[in-house]
Amino acid sequence: MAGPAASGGDVVTGAGFAVRPARAGVADTVVAGAVGPVAGESPRRRAWAAAAAVVDPEVPVLTIADLGVLRSVEVSDDGAVRVAITPTYSGCPAVETIRDDVVDALRREGFAEVRVDLVLSPAWTTDGISEDGRRKLREYGIAPPTGRSRFGEARPRGPVPVEISVPCPRCGSLDTRELSRFGSTACKALYECRACSEPFDHFKVH
């Protein structure tokens, strides 16, 4: 559900991203959280579908749309495409690969002029991972993030919060423990399941 209008005429989409009204020369914009694209319906929807299908090089079971890395896709009146992406963390080594893959995907779709912008604010959080993306992670053997990010919010006063147990994506047991704060990538932690003795990655909440 779309949130309230932001200051200055901006609108807040269902994914929580502020998007300014269409600029002169911009025919159409698709933003994260908008209604899904329909192939062939319009240039913007074809562009969104092509960019959204790009897979994350570090977690190939997810697309950049599943992950919430894809922020928006604009198509100008002259057919030029401008894409906004946000890395999962500053300095992510996969950013250049994602940028190149988005450009290649859009050019294969027939868009000759493509620009990919790196947007660092608002920062990416695990809240951006879609429900379908979380399902794919579990099926792939990676525990999706538990709870919601508190990025940018003041830390509440009161009792120390209790950490939520991370369920094993293989057997579902809650009898798990963290082995290392960093797993196969910086945004994941390495866990072990005491029930089935299998190690697994867990997407950290951030």
UniProtKB/TrEMBL annotation:
<dbReference type="InterPro" id="IPR011883">
    <property type="entry name" value="PaaD-like"/>
</dbReference>
<feature type="domain" description="MIP18 family-like">
    <location>
        <begin position="48"/>
        <end position="110"/>
    </location>
</feature>
<dbReference type="Pfam" id="PF23451">
    <property type="entry name" value="Zn_ribbon_PaaD"/>
</dbReference>
<dbReference type="InterPro" id="IPR034904">
    <property type="entry name" value="FSCA_dom_sf"/>
</dbReference>
<dbReference type="InterPro" id="IPR002744">
    <property type="entry name" value="MIP18-like"/>
</dbReference>
<dbReference type="InterPro" id="IPR056572">
    <property type="entry name" value="Zn_ribbon_PaaD"/>
</dbReference>
<protein>
    <submittedName>
        <fullName>Phenylacetate-CoA oxygenase subunit PaaJ</fullName>
    </submittedName>
</protein>
<feature type="domain" description="PaaD zinc beta ribbon">
    <location>
        <begin position="164"/>
        <end position="204"/>
    </location>
</feature>
<dbReference type="InterPro" id="IPR052339">
    <property type="entry name" value="Fe-S_Maturation_MIP18"/>
</dbReference>
<dbReference type="Pfam" id="PF01883">
    <property type="entry name" value="FeS_assembly_P"/>
</dbReference>
